[in-house]
Amino acid sequence: MAYPQTAFAATSVHDNSLIGRRRTTVCASTLLYQLQVLKDTGRYDAFKLKWHPVYDEPTVVWPIPNHLFWDSDVAKWIEGACYLLKHKAIPEVDHAIQELVEMIRSAQQPDGYLNIHYTVVEPGKRFTNLRDMHEMYNCGHMIEAALAHSDFYRNDLLLAPMIRYVDLLCETFGPGASQLHGYPGHPEIELALLRLHDRTGDPKHLALARYFITERGNHKGVEDESYFLWEARKRGDDFSRRPAFYPKEAPKCLWYHQAHAPIIEQPTIEGHSVRAMYLLTAVADLIRIEPSSSQDLNTALYRLWNNMTDRKMYVTGGIGAIEQWEGFGQDFFLPQGTDEGGCYSETCASIGVMMLAQRLLQIDLDAKFADIMELCLYNTVLTSMSHDGKGFTYDNQLASSDESHSKRSEWFTVACCPPNILRLLGQIGGYAWSFDINQSQQSAVVAAHLYISSSLKFSIGGQEVHITQNGGWPWNGDIDFVVETGSVAVTLKLRIPQWATTIEMQPWCPDAVREKGYLTLPAEWIAQNRAFKLSIPLKPRWLAAHPFTNQNTVSLARGPVVYCVEDVDNQWVQDHFKGVFVNPQNSFEEHQIVDDKTGDEYVGITLQDGARNLPELAAAFAPMLDAEKLKASLEHAPPVSALHFIPYYFRSNRGGKGHMRVGLKHAS
Amino acid sequence: MAYPQTAFAATSVHDNSLIGRRRTTVCASTLLYQLQVLKDTGRYDAFKLKWHPVYDEPTVVWPIPNHLFWDSDVAKWIEGACYLLKHKAIPEVDHAIQELVEMIRSAQQPDGYLNIHYTVVEPGKRFTNLRDMHEMYNCGHMIEAALAHSDFYRNDLLLAPMIRYVDLLCETFGPGASQLHGYPGHPEIELALLRLHDRTGDPKHLALARYFITERGNHKGVEDESYFLWEARKRGDDFSRRPAFYPKEAPKCLWYHQAHAPIIEQPTIEGHSVRAMYLLTAVADLIRIEPSSSQDLNTALYRLWNNMTDRKMYVTGGIGAIEQWEGFGQDFFLPQGTDEGGCYSETCASIGVMMLAQRLLQIDLDAKFADIMELCLYNTVLTSMSHDGKGFTYDNQLASSDESHSKRSEWFTVACCPPNILRLLGQIGGYAWSFDINQSQQSAVVAAHLYISSSLKFSIGGQEVHITQNGGWPWNGDIDFVVETGSVAVTLKLRIPQWATTIEMQPWCPDAVREKGYLTLPAEWIAQNRAFKLSIPLKPRWLAAHPFTNQNTVSLARGPVVYCVEDVDNQWVQDHFKGVFVNPQNSFEEHQIVDDKTGDEYVGITLQDGARNLPELAAAFAPMLDAEKLKASLEHAPPVSALHFIPYYFRSNRGGKGHMRVGLKHAS
Hints:
The structure is a homodimer. With about 675 residues, chain A is of the alpha+beta class.
């Protein structure tokens, strides 16, 4: 059960946790809200293949037409909706899906091709710009929608046309003399093809995914040059005209697409961060499916993951410091906001990190992957949707600034992020749990990666296994497990986060083994202990930034939740908290809060004293600021009476000026 | 005597100081070396107006032809040489100047026009691209060369043709209906025109300078749009094709040229830093010449200066964090090197800061301007030439990195910096001293801004004033003054740097008044005290960076000299000193050093202990680095036995790996 998109079907998420409440909001509000936006913007009817005025509009991000992602916007909504309909029936959503599928089917060309832009706007030019035009990205998302649709509706109304389209791709791309030796500018289809192969067993689906992955970055791919450059020359591109997201001319920017070198040779993670995550997710899947022929990829995958988490990841799980290419900066370049030189931290990128982490857990059960997965979920990902489910972020900076407030938007021209939340929350049970069944031995190994109140149910030889976890995570560290296994031998592995200083269990399991961050409870013990409680104490702690980031800041965390300060609770602030500095030695108060306006429950934290506000430094100092005078000046800085922290994900839900910050200067 | 280019003629710089020795090197080596480069590269003969193979080469920095600055390269060499020939006769240099002037004269077109590119490469296109093509920048430097030439040779062989060219410009540009309402993309001619006006008294020279300064940034300059955009449309520019130095399309990048708004409305200093400095230098001159009609400019000038020095200047006096546009980043964005996200700190930009500071001192005698002037001189500017006078830097980063070593080059395609050092060192006496003469009262006010062993000589009504300063500055803080004034009443103002904690005088002047950083010695006292000693104790001190820079670093300074660590003296270093952190409480040893290889004398400083080396941080920390664990890890970091500092300007003279750093992490 390697894929959360299928594994989630064995789970049910209870309504009474933070994640459960967010899913309730999504079902009650977001699905229908987004459906209405799809209709209002023209996306809903786009597969009717009529001209839309948007197609004439100048591009916002040259050379990408503004409507280029419409196929995937619809597909991602369908996919997310199909997951969520399992949780709650919504007739209007159900009806829309069926209508959309009919329109998509009718848009397919006789040879299987299926793409709005190249059918309506630029017919005859298909597959001439793999680098920029997202044809296969759209196709990948439609394959994923088709798989979700097929699972929910138990028919192949969407899957069958997508398989026909993939047949065309399998003919078109590959190493053969008559084939194009290309690969997508924006990876996504690779992971979709591997999932399709999991369903169809058709070896050519696996082969095409492997081809796309291994051919990528080949410097001598076609006529002794990289495919993307060859293709651009064939189009007659003027290389001096740089796409908006390229800092230099095209030949120097293949790293944007992770196509500057074969993946196995890439020393560091580079470029557009969503592309990188989708690509590496497929790489991880391929390693799991064909481990023996993927040794080099495995080495590269660990190298790139480590480079990312050790040197290019924000404390919120966000990745991508650079707005221009929505992607990675240099090692340790992690400014908190625009006024510090950057910070992008795209929602979809952190969803991609979760996808990749979930895949890595399938090939290597190490809690370090799950820790990052959870970090992303409760911080960068959760903050991307407003409390009412109708506002979204694209980037998730760690500090606001006058240049860039941390407000949410109703929608985006490039609308990848909003429907991605649907998809993720719809299948979140598949991230919380994983399980391996051994039919012949009537046994199973179950892992709980995330502590979300939920249950897992599956059967082996007619025996039903039913495991429930219940608790108030992430606010309360007690998790109650109830396990019913019949005669099945179930081994249970519970993740112990790296930040947990102590754990308790009641009753204690004397044979429990703790390895790579998982506590293994043997099947024999489980058979004797149908109910037990795991306790992971949650208390505020300060996180630091690596010294090489030049962020001499500390960030407050409690369990997996990273905190921020916001002006709503600290109304004196005038400078986006840029001048606040704190002494980590000082003590906290925790408060159980039910927010007046939103009804959301969370733990707020107050630092009663120990915070000060940077004084106006005498201009005469600069630029030859005397270190001793500065120190004295800081020591006499005016104190801040109290500093109130809220979970970062909850920011920008209650009005205010939009002043917010995660990392606060460390008073030394 | 407002202009150092003329004032310097009243001074003579002694050979026995750091600056004196650099001038000796320039006369013995650099002038002839650069002359040879001018010849080898084709610049020397370019005014013969023959085709050169370089004119066919693809541009390195599109759309700027590689040879576009050749006029100014030659002009700046002539100008610098004319200053230095006053100090030391060099027949080969003298001969070359005369030959070059002949070639320049022969290159002038019948209507006065004089420019290599538009005569040879693109005839007929003159004045069609003021934004990019540096026509008037070249002209400005040629005017300055002509003034220097006229002063030294006492003829107008170069000045006369330049005045003819300026006549053409005066006809071509201005507010008249038949005139072009343009201004230069790269300011320089403005300050040259003001100096020319100082010589000629011709009001149209002043008027053209004022027009260029005040018309700049007019959004409705021509046909309701900015001149540069109007001009680009007229050329048929494709705006999506961005010049290499524009991060966005042309209409969004007028700030690069300080043309995004009229100067009086600009809130912050932006764009290419050399352009900004040359422009503001002319603004300061204009304010001095016509104070009553320049109130708004005066307000803007202070605002922009303060923004620069308080928020956009490195501890070395360097400006410009951003390589792409060779210019200013956001407020407080001052990373030390490429691997931290930037650092450019161009040589010419700091020379420009010195020019501007020197002009500001003429309108407001405040030592804060002189402090910055001196900071630039002894650090960013002095480091830009190797000890042998044959190696040069363009950018002057504060830390090396694997991406960007701090080596010097023999020359550059865009060769603005190397001859700029000649010009500056040639006229440095004019920066050290300024003097105002009151003929009718037989009095003078003399200010000593820089403590460079030198003398100043001028006469009033037949009485000679001769003031000498002698000392070992910047290594020794004692300066001996000898003043001969005849019957002239000379008031002397001595700069007391802001960092000077105490000063002594022997004999003490009881009537001395200290105001805005200058110690005024009344004429009566001077008349009684022909010799005295000023002592400004020099001892190592730590400078800090403003907290908003996110540089939690300290830099060592002693007097005006900023220090760095270099691998030659600290051979254990592997990481460009990125992981070294120091405790500013620890004590120093100072050493008088005469360098084996170079013979250069300086004070070296050793921090005997208190420096440690960042340990390899456990990867498991990242990105949720526990603040307490990090602190413990740093406290147990391996000590560095001793840390040897050398003056920053002296780096990269003795081989080594090129590892160097100014700001070291502050151990807290």
